[in-house]
Design brief:
CATH topology of the largest domain in chain B: Tetracycline Repressor, domain 2
Shape of chain B: elongated
CATH architecture of the largest domain in chain A: 3-Layer(aba) Sandwich
Oligomer: heterodimer
Order of helices and strands of chain B: HHHHHHHHHHH
CATH topology of the largest domain in chain A: Rossmann fold
CATH class of the largest domain in chain B: Mainly Alpha
Number of domains of chain B: 2
Distance between the termini of chain A: 41 Å
Helix content of chain B: over 70%
CATH architecture of the largest domain in chain B: Orthogonal Bundle
Radius of gyration of chain A: 21 Å
CATH superfamily of the largest domain in chain A: Vaccinia Virus protein VP39
Number of strands of chain B: 0
Strand content of chain B: under 5%
Strand content of chain A: 15-25%
Strand order of the largest sheet of chain A: 6-5-4-7-8-10-9
Number of helices of chain B: 11
Order of helices and strands of chain A: HHHEHHEEHHHEHEHHEEHEHHHEE
Helix content of chain A: 40-55%
Number of strands of chain A: 10
Structural class of chain B: mainly alpha
Largest interface: A-B, 43 and 37 residues
Radius of gyration of chain B: 24 Å
Number of helices of chain A: 15
Largest sheet of chain A: 7 strands, mixed
CATH class of the largest domain in chain A: Alpha Beta
């Protein structure tokens, strides 16, 4: 792994915060001029792969023009080894391999882990707490019709700092009086997990005993740690848009859930069509203010620029519901619930019997 | 570039075609002979959980507990009740939908005899509304809770839609074919009468709920009397106005 020069180069670029100049030029330049403007600094990121339109992961098709493929450095292609043969995107950049996206997302969250909570409060005026509280109480973990209550196993994916997991534990143990609820926090990023571990020290001892941590990639959970058909509830809050391959993560969720188990996702989404003024204000806030706040508070503009771009690129409510259904889940009613006029949305799906 | 873009465009198109069919499932608020209503408000998994949970309503009410019991009975997990986006309200809606849909097959038995079949439309409406109220009997002691849930602001629109659908169903089954503005006043009036009778019934302990039936008949009578009074007034106003115009014309006013 370490012998692969392309990967190494990507990592060093992450640690030195990938070049600003390049990112901004990408945003202003058209897809066709992408290679010429950026080839000097990070050619490995912007290899000439066919321009992708709005799609999370697309099978690597043959590029339309032969000239486009010839501009790519062949040694670079071999180095990063487009092993899965698929490309994805990072913010508004297209044509990254999935491993590259994983690396770069890791870089973003390494650099924001410390200031994550403070930033969330500033960006959403504290409203993300209301969303998370609503998300957990609507799921009602630990509720059981039997006496003694039935045990439940919950996996919180991309839940490094424990925001959702701690709420789940409290809801199950205190409100529903069900001490046999176990929550596993899984995250690909050790920095975020470290923050969560540190914060979990202030929980009551009984809740700490029902909590475990797992460093794993959500698109391929280790079968040793999470067996198939073993979970009651799989949650992912503000994480799924960072996954390199969302359909693979959904398929993995379906594998680990018991029949009747529930997949629940809280994620930024699209503002409802009936509120153009609100949408304009929201867009102005996210593209104008959030990177600035990131620069001032966390000292990291690029990570927050990525954040707002990835929100913009995430599929709409209906499209994401389609992805969930395609993964083999059953959705009830409309299949999603909009929060704050569609700024965020809760999607739920059940694995059929 | 071209094939991938075309692919995503096609995928979007496919989704776009799916969306309206979902929307029309809930938007229909009238009867159509040419386009039969899309059947199945609930998908099979929802149906399984709700029908099992519905049996627990008389004992446990329209609650999350009844839902969980139903889910377990249907072979699902406690957590599977998350499939139902509205929680306990889904159970209430299940009651409203199934009881409304059960009216149509029962019409044959109610109006089977010739003397029943020759009843006037208002009499048939009264008979059907009473039949629908009787379907609340087995959950009557839980119905105040249900009404409280239905009155929660987020559930008011779907509750009112269900009420409108019921009023329309009753008038449709009674054989009403009006296509004038009374289409609205009839259904609006029946909705108000039915909702108040339902509320009255929750406090009615008379044998066979005879008090409720008397209440229902009084309200419907008032409705028809009000209707005839309004139409009488309208006739009088129209006659007087045209007479006034004619008097003025006879005096040489150019109208």
């Amino acid at each position: 792994m370490a012998a692969r020069p392309g990967l190494l180069r990507a990592t060093t670029q992450i640690s030195s915060r990938y070049p600003r100049l390049c990112m901004s030029s990408i945003r202003s330049s058209s897809i066709s001029s992408k290679n010429s403007t950026c080839s000097n600094s990070s050619s490995s990121h912007h290899r000439a792969v066919a321009g992708r339109t709005f799609c999370t992961t697309t099978p690597n098709r043959k590029p339309a023009s032969p000239s486009a493929s010839s501009t790519a450095d062949p040694s670079d292609n071999n180095a990063t080894g487009n092993a899965t043969g698929r490309t994805t995107h990072f913010g508004f950049e297209d044509g990254l391999s999935e491993s590259e996206k994983t690396e770069r997302v890791a870089g973003v969250f390494h650099s924001v882990a410390e200031s994550y909570d403070r930033m969330n409060d500033l960006m959403s005026f504290g409203w993300h707490r209301v969303w998370k509280d609503h998300f957990v109480s609507s799921l009602n973990p630990g509720h059981s019709s039997s006496n003694p209550p039935a045990p439940q196993r919950i996996l919180d994916v991309a839940g490094g700092t424990g925001d959702i997991a701690f709420r789940m534990l409290r809801h199950a143990h205190v409100l529903n009086r069900n001490p046999s609820v176990h929550v596993t926090i899984s995250d690909i990023n050790p920095s975020m997990l470290a923050v969560g571990k540190q914060r979990s020290a202030s929980l009551p001892a009984s809740q700490q005993a029902s909590l475990s941590f797992l460093e794993a990639d959500a698109t391929s959970l280790p079968p040793g740690a999470i067996a198939s058909n073993s979970l009651d509830l799989y949650t992912v809050a503000f994480g799924i848009r960072n996954f390199a391959n969302i359909p693979a993560a959904l398929a993995e969720a379906r594998r680990v859930l018991k029949p009747g188990g529930v997949f629940a996702c809280l994620e930024f989404s699209k503002v409802v069509a009936g509120a153009p003024l609100f949408d304009a204000i929201y867009k102005r806030w996210s593209f104008g203010a959030i990177p600035l706040i990131g620069q001032l508070v966390a000292g990291d503009r690029d990570s927050y620029q990525y954040l707002v771009e990835s929100i913009e690129r995430f599929p709409s409510q209906e499209e994401f519901r389609g992805l969930i259904e395609d993964a083999g889940f059953v959705v009830g009613g409309r299949g999603y619930e909009n929060l704050t006029g569609g700024v965020a949305a809760i999607h739920k799906g059940m694995k059929p019997l | 570039m071209a094939p991938s873009r075309a692919f995503t465009w096609l995928a979007t198109l496919r989704r776009a075609q799916l969306v309206p069919s979902r929307a029309s499932m809930v938007a229909r608020s009238y009867h159509s002979y040419d386009h039969p209503p899309p059947s199945g408000t609930f998908n099979p998994a929802e149906q399984a959980i709700l029908s099992a949970a519905y049996k627990h309503v008389p004992e446990h009410g329209f609650t999350q507990h009844a839902l969980s019991l139903g889910a377990r009975e249907a072979g699902y997990l406690d957590i599977s009740t998350n499939l139902l986006p509205e929680g306990p309200f889904s159970l209430i809606r299940y009651h409203l939908v199934t009881q409304r849909e059960a009216l149509a097959p029962r019409r044959e038995t109610i109006f089977g005899t010739p003397d029943q079949a020759s009843l006037s439309v208002p009499a048939k409406v009264e008979r059907l509304a009473w039949e629908r109220l009787l379907a609340n009997q087995h959950v009557n002691h839980r119905w105040q809770e249900a009404l409280a849930v239905m009155a929660q602001p987020s559930y008011v629109p779907s509750s009112l839609r269900e009420l409108a659908l019921l009023a329309d169903e009753i008038y449709h089954l009674a054989g009403d074919t009006s296509v004038d503005p009374t289409w609205y006043t009839k259904r609006g009036g029946l909705s108000a009468v039915y909702a108040s009778s339902e509320l009255f019934m929750t406090n009615d302990y008379s044998p066979g709920h005879t008090e409720t039936r008397a209440f229902l008949q009084r309200r419907l009578d008032e409705g028809s009397r009000l209707g005839s009074a309004v139409s009488g007034l309208a006739q009088w106003v129209g006659f007087t106005a045209s007479a006034g115009v004619n008097v003025l014309r006879s005096k040489g006013v150019r109208i």
